[in-house]
Amino acid sequence: MTAIGMGLVFIAILALWGMMDVMVKITSGSSQSVEAEPASSSEITSTSENELHVRSTLNNYSRLAAVTAVAIALQLKKQAEVVKKESGQNVSAWQLVRRTNILNQAANLIKRKSRGSEL
Fold first, then answer.
1. Residue at 94 is within a domain
2. Average pLDDT per run of 10 along the chain, which is 119 residues long?
3. How far apart are alpha carbons 4 and 15 in whole angstroms?
4. Total of domains in the chain
5. Separation between Cα atoms, residue 85 and residue 96, nearest integer Å
6. Which pTM value belongs to this model?
7. Distance (Å, rounded) from C-alpha 38 to C-alpha 55?
8. Integer Cα distance of 84 and 36 in angstroms
């Protein structure tokens, strides 16, 4: 029974692989068969200038994204060091979240209203 189940799983994987391969061949073949009309030299120059502008803009955005990611990583590292110093031991982020949730649940038990109160 196990062999049959495993065999069916592998057959399904191979079938999906084959279908994806066929879809890639179908979609890539249609985009290559389209022929572009020859463009004049002024259109080529304006297009290349537009491409340069787009590339420089994307390059600036990617630099900004990289700088932002580094700044966030450095800030997270500082916060982790503060947590380690305050607790006196190495505490992972998962432990910190779990302990915080437990404290919040305990605080909610103390703060909750009694059943019969209307306030």
1. yes
2. 94 96 84 51 64 81 88 86 65 86 83 66
3. 16
4. 1
5. 13
6. 0.30
7. 23
8. 62
- The answer as to whether 19 is a domain residue is no
Q: Provide the CA 27 distance to its chain's centre, in angstroms.
A: 26
Is residue 53 situated within a structural domain?
no
The DSSP call for residue 39 is: P
- Let me know the angle formed at the C-alpha of 87 by 81 and 91, rounded to the nearest 5 degrees: 65
Q: Is residue 52 part of a domain?
A: no
Residue 94's pLDDT is 87
Q: Quick one: which of 72, 97, 73 has its CA closest to 83?
A: 97
Say which amino acid occupies 88.
Answer: G
Residue 1 CA to residue 70 CA, distance in Å, equals 53
